[in-house]
Amino acid sequence: xxxxxxxxxxxxxxxxxxxxxxxxxxxxxxxxxxxxxxxxxxxxxxxxxxxxxxxxxxxxxxxxxxxxxxxxxxxxxxxxxxxxxxxxxxxxxxxxxxxxxxxxxxxxxxxxxxxxxxxxxxxxxxxxxxxxxxxxxxxxxxxxxxxxxxxxxxxxxxxxxxxxxxxxxxxxxxxxxxxxxxxxxxxxxxxxxxxxxxxxxxxxxxxxxxxxxxxxxxxxxxxxxxxxxxxxxxxxxxxxxxxxxxxxxxxxxxxxxxxxxxxxxxxxxxxxxxxxxxxxxxxxxxxxxxxxxxxxxxxxxxxxxxxxxxxxxxxxxxxxxxxxxxxxxxxxxxxxxxxxxxxxxxxxxxxxxxxxxxxxxxxxxxxxxxxxxxxxxxxxxxxxxxxxxxxx
Length: 392
What we know:
The protein is α/β, with parallel strands linked by helices. It has helices spanning 16-19, 30-33, 65-72, 79-88, 97-107, 128-141, 153-157, 175-196, 218-227, 232-248, 287-292, 322-334, 347-359, 370-378, 382-388; strands at residues 60-62, 92-94, 116-121, 144-149, 163-164, 172-173, 204-205, 211-212, 253-258, 301-306, 338-341. The chain has a domain at 96-341. Helix content is 39%, strand content 11%. A five-stranded parallel sheet has the order 4-9-10-3-11, with helices on both faces. A hairpin with a 5-residue loop joins strand 7 (204-205) and strand 8. Helix 8 runs parallel beside helix 10 and helix 9 (218-227) runs antiparallel to helix 10 (232-248). It is globular and about 75 Å long.
């Protein structure tokens, strides 16, 4: 009989293939002969987004921890990127050409004219959400009142709780999601709202015993919606209506940023009505207020919206183009708008990202050619590159 040989299995790191395929004859010295990049090649110490220009292109800048906490505690970073931020103990964003283009448009906006809508579009994982994050940081540093929805499909696919709306009949409330958004709005804008001291323009009656009188601060309005979750969706509608009016009256500048905007125009959601049928997004009370604030019937503001294939509830999306994802109704709602195509990394951006990972000891220097293999495997797609180099 043949003796059975014991076999041992070892877990091979995901990047092993990329790191271990150099020719056997490659000289060991090649590890040390590669040109080294100094920190200024891929980092910049300029944290003021207002000063970002082509000089900083493809370089990483660091968000101050307190501003990162203020902006993104309630969401706004992709989940895996947020995990990477925690691992690296710093939040760094790359200054990309599309971000510079967007910021340049905003800097040169005539805010006396109707609000301009910018639509970020592109393939999955190209960086639409982080481009929006860069713009939000600009808005925070330049005293814009922020109206930010981190990811609309969360409301359409997996709401925390649903309830029948008191009016209109047959509509659905998302009370906990509405309250969570009000907390997010307060976190981002509490300091600015206190300085601006914006007041409500009319009485808001919630029940026979509860009302928010004319002349109340917007912070008081927000806090009421947080404390009385039952009325959170109605509070969101009242708040956005007041924000539009105050902006038009030149009392504040407003930046609207909505990620996954096309989910508002999907044929159906994963929420079931009383008839056991899936309802459409327009039957959710949170939908209309955010559609209203993305119209061009107000001034002193800017709207930054993204459309995304994975933002749709069901089915395979063949195209990432705005007309396809928004449908006829959604496209006509935003028309005219400025389209901004977010693309994969350029050669310079890819090299900068690899150098950043090396600096953070997230990947390890290996024989010549590993970065070319990463480039081949990821096709320079930012999300795919992050997936390939993630921890086991």
